[in-house]
Amino acid sequence: MANIKSKKKRIVTNERARQRNVAVRSNMRTHMKQLLAAIEAKDADKVKTALPIALSILDRAVTKGVIHANSAARKKSMLQHRAASL
């Protein structure tokens, strides 16, 4: 455990940021899995509703600094390519 007051504060803020990052990443993965499941099931209605949501969540993860912009672009491209194959 740190002895310096500023380091103790950093430990608290880092934990808060880590918890936020875990939540954002979990939400992102959940929506991606739902979209991929809809694509596998060939359910066009679910894909049309899930695709914009998943893309939006990926963009939000980038703005919050949870994932890199290129990683999000790669994931978005993959999702759109698979959705278009229906």
What can you tell me about this protein's structure?
The protein is mostly helical. It has one domain: Ribosomal protein S20 (Methane Monooxygenase Hydroxylase, Chain G, domain 1), CATH 1.20.58. The protein has 3 helices and no strands. Helix 1 packs antiparallel against helix 2 (44-63) and helix 2 runs antiparallel to helix 3 (69-84). The model has no long low-confidence stretch (mean pLDDT 97).
Core attributes:
86 residues; mainly alpha; 3 helices
* Percentage of β-strand residues: under 5%
Shape: elongated
Helix percentage range? over 70%
CATH class: Mainly Alpha
Our count of helices gives: 3
How far apart are the first and last residues' alpha carbons, in Å? 54 Å
Helix/strand order, N-terminal first: HHH
Number of strands: 0
What is the alpha-carbon Rg in Å? 17 Å
Structural class: mainly alpha
Q: What's the CATH architecture name?
A: Up-down Bundle
Tell me, rounded to a whole number, the average pLDDT: 97
The tally of structural domains comes to 1
- Profile the largest sheet: none
Give the CATH topology. Answer: Methane Monooxygenase Hydroxylase, Chain G, domain 1
CATH superfamily: Ribosomal protein S20
**Low-confidence parts, pLDDT < 50 over ≥5 residues?**
none
Secondary structure: elements and pairs:
Layout (H helix, E strand, L loop, with lengths): L4 H36 L3 H20 L5 H16 L2
Helix pairs in contact: 1-2, 2-3
Short summary of the structure?
This protein is mainly α and 86 residues long. Helix content is 84%, strand content 0%.
